Amino acid sequence: MAQKPSLPKGTRDFLPEVTLRRTFIFDTIKTVFQKYGYAPIETPSMENLSVLTGKYGEEGDRLIFKILNSGDFLRKATELEDSRKLTPQIAEKALRYDLTVPFARFVVMNQHALTFPFKRYQIQSVFRADKPQKGRYREFVQCDADVVGSDSLLFEAEFLCIYDEALSKLGLDDFTIQINNRKILEGFAEVVNQSDKFTDICVAIDKLDKIGQEKVMAEMEARDIPAAAAQEIFRLITFEGTAEEKLDFLEKAFANSPAGTLGVQEMREIFETYAAFPRFAGTVDFNLKLARGLNYYTGAIYEVKANNVKIGSICGGGRYADLTGVFGRPGLSGVGISFGADRIYDVMEELDLFGEIPSTSTKVLVVNFGNEVRLQALAALNQLRSAGIGAEYYAEAAKMKKQFGYADKKGIPFTLIIGADEAASGQYQLKNMKEGSQQALNMEAIIQHLS
Prior knowledge:
The protein has 451 residues and is α+β, with helices and mostly antiparallel strands. It has helices at 16-35, 49-52, 57-62, 73-78, 86-90, 100-109, 154-169, 182-191, 198-205, 208-222, 227-237, 243-253, 258-274, 341-350, 374-386, 400-410, 420-425, 443-450, and strands at residues 39-40, 46-48, 66-68, 91-95, 118-127, 139-148, 175-181, 283-286, 300-306, 313-320, 334-340, 364-366, 391-393, 414-417, 428-432, 438-441. The strands form three sheets. Strands 1-5-6-11-10-9-7-8 form an eight-stranded mixed sheet. Strands 13-12-14-15-16 form a five-stranded mixed sheet.
């Protein structure tokens, strides 16, 4: 009996129409990256497990896809009594969880060939052992841009611009770019004398939108954060006002917090720099509740949400002070952002923003009338392709209805009819499949029209 075809949960096939739409997203984002001076790189889908573990916090580490070693490792592993020794015995590699940690490894391994500050973009798949649901997949594409080797806050301001411009060019007209600073979060911990619980505080606050304040308070209590400290943290992070009003408020609140004071200074500079750049459709929100639980962030952090679609964040990123240090190259500060292309696709589909994107790369189908005019048809096909126009020749001589049906199903907008009369006169019939109209033109005019 034939095997029933299936896919692992959280993974997908992509039909041509979907792939073309995804390519449109990638190309749009890539164009903006290049406009700001970022160059492309690629890294392997798998990394050594030691490269990835310990970089994403306790929750992130649980979502890493480990790859079983080949050979007779499983038998040997079952002989071990200590289960803590099991993983190194059966898995030494893993699928990459994100593009940032592999980028840090890449920088250290290739530092001799790079010019710093090094600005790169990368559009590749990442893998999460997560529970699949709407907008959350086990394999998905991230579109990242990072700059490493500079402490300048110019890049933080430019990343606000990149988010704004790229998403606006994709057709989104109602989205919010949220920004905060991990030093401000450190300030909250310092103010309540809980600096040793900083990571616990960030992990709890990061869940605020998902589980609400009451459950976050309970989680802080479970992590041994006193109730009075938790209440004061919530008083600080729920302050409302403009970005300037929030900064003034925090400046007073952080009178005895060095980290918090530095965070306020950094945010003032970022907003002042950003004010010099043009605006597109997005709104920037200085969100004091934004925490992002990844351990390697040390400065500004970002999250982007589409306001008219319930799907969670579609982009994220932040500043990391010394991510390359764990790989033996300390002192290289960096900052980066990531576009969640799959979630962006879902948002665009829900908002019907793909209407003008062609469903095929073929612009014209040359109709097959058989051997009598085959050479003329192939010559026309070659002329179209030489002019950079996507063109196909119907492989078999078939009824016109069948060939037109093929063009309609594929979304090919034009057909080119070259029968005996057309071949003799040099005036070919170009048919607009959407309108049903057609006109007689020579090849020069046809190429000009389709171009």
